[in-house]
Amino acid sequence: MPYRAPTAEFEFLLTHVVGFDRVTATERHAEATPETVRALLGEAGRICEEVIAPLNRAGDLQPSRLENGVVRTPPGYAEGYRAMAEAGMTAISADPEHGGLGLPQTVATCVNDMAGAACLALQMNPLMTQGQIEALEHHGSDDLKALYLPKLTSGEWCGTMNLTEPQAGSDVGALTTKAEPAGDGTYRITGQKIYISWGDNDFTGNVVHLVLARLPDAPRGTKGISLFLVPKLIPDAAGNPGVANALKVVSLEHKLGLHGSPTCVMQYEGATGWLVGAENDGMAAMFTMMNNARLGVAVHGVSVADAATQAAVAYAAGRRQGRPLIEGGTGTILDHADVRRMLMEMKAETFAARAMALDLAVSIDLGHAGDAAQAARAAVLTPIAKAYGTETGIKVANMGIQVHGGMGFIEETGVAQYLRDVRVSAIYEGTNGIQAMDLAGRKMSDGGAAIGALVDAVEAEALDAGGDLGAEVAAMAAALRAATGDMLGRELNDRFGGAVPYMMGFARVMGALYHLRAARAGSARAALARFYITRLLPEAHGLFAQARQGAADLYDLSPDDLAA
Amino acid sequence: MPYRAPTAEFEFLLTHVVGFDRVTATERHAEATPETVRALLGEAGRICEEVIAPLNRAGDLQPSRLENGVVRTPPGYAEGYRAMAEAGMTAISADPEHGGLGLPQTVATCVNDMAGAACLALQMNPLMTQGQIEALEHHGSDDLKALYLPKLTSGEWCGTMNLTEPQAGSDVGALTTKAEPAGDGTYRITGQKIYISWGDNDFTGNVVHLVLARLPDAPRGTKGISLFLVPKLIPDAAGNPGVANALKVVSLEHKLGLHGSPTCVMQYEGATGWLVGAENDGMAAMFTMMNNARLGVAVHGVSVADAATQAAVAYAAGRRQGRPLIEGGTGTILDHADVRRMLMEMKAETFAARAMALDLAVSIDLGHAGDAAQAARAAVLTPIAKAYGTETGIKVANMGIQVHGGMGFIEETGVAQYLRDVRVSAIYEGTNGIQAMDLAGRKMSDGGAAIGALVDAVEAEALDAGGDLGAEVAAMAAALRAATGDMLGRELNDRFGGAVPYMMGFARVMGALYHLRAARAGSARAALARFYITRLLPEAHGLFAQARQGAADLYDLSPDDLAA
């Protein structure tokens, strides 16, 4: 089934659910009028439907490959990328000073949502560039900005993030890539990086790597990490791609999904790099990239959930039954109560996960405009949105396979690819376990103030909404407050034992709030809200029950017991 | 990591959890002494570890393929199949009269568990044969039995099930394959069947198809379906494979997983078939095959869950961290509370799903030995075990990927294959939605007597076990009783709206019971039981809450609303 861009859904969410008017009310984003946003999303949607979506299965069947050290991308990817870049889709929120559209992150989030649904493997490329642009805008020197940002913003060049090493994944502090001062203001970067998405391609004029490495005598752990910009081709005096840098793609990974996206093992052999930010302060810049990327990856989940839901609804509506199942039915498997249940769950989850991503984007935009409370709110929502968005993508893609029955297991149908592609989203940019540790650790380091403010606001709004659904949401917000209090009373590792269920229960409460807001808009919205609040929200009881178990019981089995 | 056969776990479960001694106390199975069973499982385990498991990834990389109308299987499959057949692993429970070992279904279930964990794609083959043997034993004429059973039992020939047609999947009654009497006691079978697992191979002397088809003027729907035996090669007077029958493999499917198992589109073009059972009574024979296959597919989930858990524990225990995470820790990611949580959940779920499969097998064996109450208990447990086993396989394989982090997304690691392979188990032999309809429909047609007896027994045993865990299980059994009562009070389609959550909540209660039994055996078992009962059992509250919603709200969205 052809992908349809959900532009009306975005308009509904921006207007009725996430209060996007607060963003356009700021001086910074006054130009993002409804007409401008509508026109931009309409055009981006058209490109995604017509140009990008047709590349999705082709890229799965003809993966990116390494030929004599050079990455060859799937047929059509170059043209697809160019279409996105020309429409400004690769840098919606980049600074106009360097050619960006300067639009809110919220708008970029809508565009990324559509591009990811159309072809997630290709969309990984601009997502990495967007994180790099933001990192350079915040931490780069004026020279680096002047040289790199215009070309990254235009899409002429693209960017990557180089964090992981074989022995240093979630444990970033264990990385050993070296950076030695060359004496001329540059550095020589030496080491191996793995899992580098889009580490090379055959359609941009240059590839700009941001690489975490250690200076000589740097402190151990994360306090001794610096960030370097390492271009594939070193720009000449005119800023054009010049001589090749001392780096190469060693190999590509064979992955469960995202076959079109080349996941590279990169070798740096004394490559020339430029420091970004202060020495030993690389983690700050990394978190700038990471937070951007975490929202972007949350959206990956939403994208795939939407595409999977569209496909499942279309399949069910066309799959005829030999005999009528219910009176006045459609004569298709849509008449099956359980098929309905699955489709409504897919729609209800997709709606909630998308609303959360956009809610987070709005808080980021307001934070950028100077609202510290919104910035703190965004910090709390980031791990929740990343985990909930990606778990939703996986769950909904999996359910979409189920709706298709035997056809779901056949690759030609295309819905198995959704599950394969989206699976890694729960792992990269910080596994969802790491997100939970961030929420229960760093994001509670204010004594629970930011979380408390968020929960209070949910409860007050739910009580204000009233009715049986409002009462359910308010009651679960109170249960979330209790679970938060329980967390705050525990040692850190004890919190971590229940952090994932706590986070997923938190997501349920937020999801219910978004549905409650949507329910005011009409009967179909209200029916979906009732489904979510009566059927899915109660899961949070079980999740909070698990969160209250802490960590002690998790160490009752010895490693030998686990292996037995 | 090499697969290790869980022979000690089987012995524990048979002895302490599922009461296998009740089976060996019957006259029918008196010969299945602990020593016999131990020796057989030991030898089967050795073959699975040494011969079958090494074929798993090879079969994924080099799928079965169709060459000039003939299926070519992956390298090593022929030898692997032969090793299984020679050890009697393909027909553990078949009647000794035709060369079978005549051992209980419970023992066959243990063997299938190991074979499926070692190489699920290959194990699909004997599983289909086992169902065919059982169907022929119950419904075949003496002539058919005498001719086919010895060769099927020895593994010289193998069997398939031909149910599905393009327009008739879950809706079996819609099938249109024709069977016309030839006048000589045989029939001419004409039609197309799809999704035929192991529809052909290059390592057995014949392939025997059981095909559902319609006689001329048969009643519509499922009441007009008959079952036919249709061999690939028609046996000559001496019973040896003779001339080719008028059937062919048209194509193989390209699937998400199980690449080694050829999933065939079969074309019957006036093929010669023999009636199995009475005319228009094919559904009865089909259910004999199906019930066997449903237990077998439940075990597929258990198999993969076990293999995925073994791999994840081994990976975590070997994945070192740069710095110690907890005092007295291992220095590996095993120290992470959330990694522990995932591993314990994987182990706790695998244990419960395996216990349920074996509990079902024991009830089947006791039912075969003449105990009607146990047969009724088996009928209730079958859909629950099929759904819980397969959902556990999918969930645990998915969690295993997460434990591996980025490595989990790389195909070389082998754990992504587990998820790909097991995904279809929730679909074939009746989707899990169909299982739920069976439980809430047919299996409640006695007014809830069989379910009530099962729930009463769980509650009584939990109360008898006592302690906080016993009390929790008893309380949830009471909640299950209430949910059952609620179901019984509803119209059929209204039950179906909550049937899947009801079934999964039912599974949680049964799983808790098995853990409660195991907890008496020692501290590691007790720790795992506590984990399951305090962390996972509470999910049932949310599931029963959803079950109570019925179906009415599921039709509040129009097909257009769903597509919007």
From TrEMBL, chains A, B:
Keyword entries, A-Z: FAD, Flavoprotein, Oxidoreductase
InterPro entries according to UniProt: Acyl-CoA_dh-like_C_dom (IPR025878), Acyl-CoA_Oxase/DH_mid-dom (IPR006091), Acyl-CoA_Oxase/DH_mid-dom_sf (IPR046373), AcylCo_DH-like_C (IPR036250), AcylCo_DH/oxidase_C (IPR009075), AcylCoA_DH/ox_N (IPR013786), AcylCoA_DH/ox_N_sf (IPR037069), AcylCoA_DH/oxidase_NM_dom_sf (IPR009100)
Chain ranges of the Acyl-CoA dehydrogenase/oxidase C-terminal domain: 280-442
Acyl-CoA oxidase/dehydrogenase middle domain sequence ranges: 161-269
Domain of life: Bacteria
Domain Acetyl-CoA dehydrogenase-like C-terminal: 465-557
Cofactor(s), names only, from the UniProt record: FAD
Reaction(s) the record says it catalyses: 3-(methylsulfanyl)propanoyl-CoA + oxidized [electron-transfer flavoprotein] + H(+) = 3-(methylsulfanyl)acryloyl-CoA + reduced [electron-transfer flavoprotein]
Pfam families associated with the record: Acyl-CoA_dh_1, Acyl-CoA_dh_C, Acyl-CoA_dh_M, Acyl-CoA_dh_N
Alphabetized GO MF terms: flavin adenine dinucleotide binding; oxidoreductase activity, acting on the CH-CH group of donors
Every Acyl-CoA dehydrogenase/oxidase N-terminal domain range: 37-156
Function: Involved in the assimilation of dimethylsulphoniopropionate (DMSP), an important compound in the fixation of carbon in marine phytoplankton, by mediating the conversion of 3-(methylthio)propanoyl-CoA (MMPA-CoA) to 3-(methylthio)acryloyl-CoA (MTA-CoA).
PANTHER family registered for this protein in UniProt: ACYL-COA DEHYDROGENASE, BROAD-SPECIFICITY LINEAR ACYL-COA DEHYDROGENASE FADE5
Protein family according to the UniProt entry: Belongs to the acyl-CoA dehydrogenase family.
Protein name per Swiss-Prot or TrEMBL: 3-methylmercaptopropionyl-CoA dehydrogenase
Species this chain originates from: Roseicyclus persicicus
